[in-house]
Design a protein that fits this description.
- It is built from three helices and eleven strands.
- It is α+β, with helices and mostly antiparallel strands and 199 residues long.
- It has one domain.
- The strands form two sheets. Strands 1, 4, 5, 6, 7, 10 and 11 form a seven-stranded mixed beta sheet that branches. It has a four-stranded antiparallel beta sheet with strand order 2-3-9-8, with helices on one face.
- A hairpin with a 3-residue loop joins strand 4 and strand 5.
- The protein is globular, with a radius of gyration of 19 Å.
- The N and C termini lie far apart (39 Å).
- One of its GO terms (molecular function) is peptidase activity.
Length: 199
């Protein structure tokens, strides 16, 4: 397990609702059991129940993972988190602040269209029996959720450190084979970039 903060984003619609002078953004920061490619090195999915304990803490909603741009908080009731059958559902009451007003306009225009979350993994498993290692995140320490402009999986270097740490702890059975597959994949990608054909 990694002790570093990881971030993952989801390409999905962020819905905006306005009623009785209250503006609310609604979206999913994570979806369960969806395989995501992490930099071509491994795949990752989030298991149902990963957020069950994590959402009981004092979590903040941010703009683009910027800790200086808080737009909601569970403790104050302006951020509501729920783990349902699909994933981690987020509802944020958008404040009448510069960040809140700018965010509202950007979501209305479609410029911001994703949700994301920052976390530390507390329980994970790895499956290296296939062509690509698969990491299943089973439990997390949730630090924040964010509305993001770039809804794509990121921070692959942290994920790679997590994979290396797991292997160092003896959790991977086929570490040498997995390293060979990764090296072969990188070589194919390099050849493709340089225009070298493979027969």
């Amino acid at each position: 397990m990694t002790t570093e903060i990881e971030k993952r984003s989801l390409i999905a619609d962020v819905e905006h609702r306005a009623a009785d002078d209250k503006r609310t953004l609604v979206g999913y920061a994570a979806v369960f059991e969806r395989l995501a490619d992490i930099g071509g090195y491994f795949q990752e999915k989030i298991a149902p129940g990963a957020f069950t304990d994590a959402i009981k803490g004092d979590i903040r909603a941010l703009v683009d993972h910027d800790m200086g741009r808080v737009i909601g908080r569970t403790k104050s009731g302006t951020l509501r988190l729920q783990e349902d059958g699909k994933g981690l559902l987020v509802e944020v009451d958008v404040p009448d602040t510069t960040d809140g007003n700018d965010l509202w306009v950007l979501v209305e225009r479609g410029d911001i269209s994703g949700m994301s979350f920052g976390f530390r993994v507390t329980k994970e498993t790895w499956d290296e029996t296939g062509a690509v290692p698969v990491r299943t995140i089973e439990k997390v320490n949730l630090l924040e959720v964010s509305a993001v402009a770039w809804p794509a999986y990121d921070d692959t270097t942290i994920g790679l450190r997590s994979l290396a740490a797991t292997r160092a702890e003896g959790g991977a059975r086929n570490a040498a084979a997995a390293r060979r597959r990764i090296a072969e994949r990188e070589a194919r990608q390099e050849q493709k970039i340089r225009g070298i054909r493979q027969d």
